[in-house]
Amino acid sequence: MEHLEIPVEFQSKLRRRLIHQDGRTDAAIIDALHSHFPVDSEKNIWGFWHSGILSMPSHWQRNVAQWVRLNKSDGWTVRILDNCPESPNYALNFIPAEMLPQCFIDRTVDGKYVGQHSADFVRGACIYQHGGVYMDVGILPILPVDQICWNQLVDPTTPYEVSTVLSHGTLPVNFFLAGRQGDKFIKRLNDMFLYIWKGRTNCTGVSQHPLLAPTLIDPNTGKFIEFPPGIADLADGVRMPDLVDYSMQMFCWSQLACTKDLNSGFDGVEYWTEKTLLFPRVAEAHRREEIVNWDGPRFFKLLCLRRHEEARLESPDDWKSAHDLVWSILADSAMVKIFKAAQLFTSVTLGMMMERPENVELDNVSGTCQDRLRVLYSHELKGAPGRVLEVVNFTGYVQAQDAALINTKHLESVSATSKQAA
Fold this sequence. Notes:
- InterPro entries: AfumC-like_glycosyl_Trfase (IPR008441), Nucleotide-diphossugar_trans (IPR029044).
- It holds the Pfam family Caps_synth.
- This is Glycosyltransferase family 32 protein.
- One of its GO terms (molecular function) is glycosyltransferase activity.
- By secondary structure, this protein is α/β, with parallel strands linked by helices.
- The protein folds into two domains: 27-282 and 392-421, no CATH class; 288-332 and 335-388, no CATH class.
- It is built from 20 helices and ten strands.
- The strands form three sheets. A six-stranded mixed β-sheet has the order 3-2-4-7-6-8, with helices on both faces.
- Helix 6 (184-196) crosses helix 10, helix 9 crosses helix 10 and helix 16 packs parallel to helix 18 (369-380).
- It is globular, with a radius of gyration of 21 Å.
- It starts with 13 loop residues before the first strand and ends with a helix.
């Protein structure tokens, strides 16, 4: 394997590994994951692909293979659940039926987001049932999950119980979710999500549901609130109701974080402000924004750029951008979340570019910047021992949401309704 020198400006943030953690090929790792592994600890990394891991596009399979390489030596077991009853990783082999909506069990989920919402159904349920970390298959990991959050979740001297990503200081994002087995916040999040899906097969119009509408509709105007600052640049002309329909689990989290259950004493505000370990989306998962500004085609072009001297001479600006992109991700990010959302956004994202027929396997070409990124972090480099993720302070957001958007009497009825649903 090519031995690359760490640029001077990144030498304080990276060091070389002494040994390879897993020398198997991607294909060998994926084939091994097509097996049933009984759960024997909380150290589980969960993912989902509706039709099974072997049918997953190769670029997502390569991500999952890296999950194994980075975390196996720390005692983690990776599982990609599916909705295929004959599969060894059928979701109901791990999750009780009562924790899943009927449309998932009957395999009648329809609409534009079948895969996305099927993944939403299992992410909270498997964490509550067994503990661990759920990651979307679009995550290309840089740090092991112990370092990202798990060491703090299991440390009795910290207050943290769950961990996820915070977008622009306002919205929890569920592509990465971690929690201890039996966590009461995750249980209520799953109960709320399950209740909203009762009698449904798709998400159309869910933004009008009484459990969500109070946080989304301005009581003075009766209209949907505008996107919070920082979210509008991601919306790309999408209507707020459509975004809520697509991302309803995230909005369930926001609602639950502002809810106090007067019957049980559960305090969502306390959980949100004191027991949730969040790290910022841009800094830790979407650092490429600083260089490519959500330009999917440009990001793909940079990743596919050859590293040889001729490429640097032909396109010096692109070569410099690609160099900065790769090394800043390696040094300063926990992961790369490859964003797709093809049915929601009109702009072309990196995930869309990777799935175009003419681009299949281009992310796996030896000698490219993508190859450098993938090989270095999984085999040769790791973050410096002192690398700690930034932790976000969100108390002010909860207080602002509670004052501006939440109707207290309605929340009391929500608590009662959620309790009945559970």
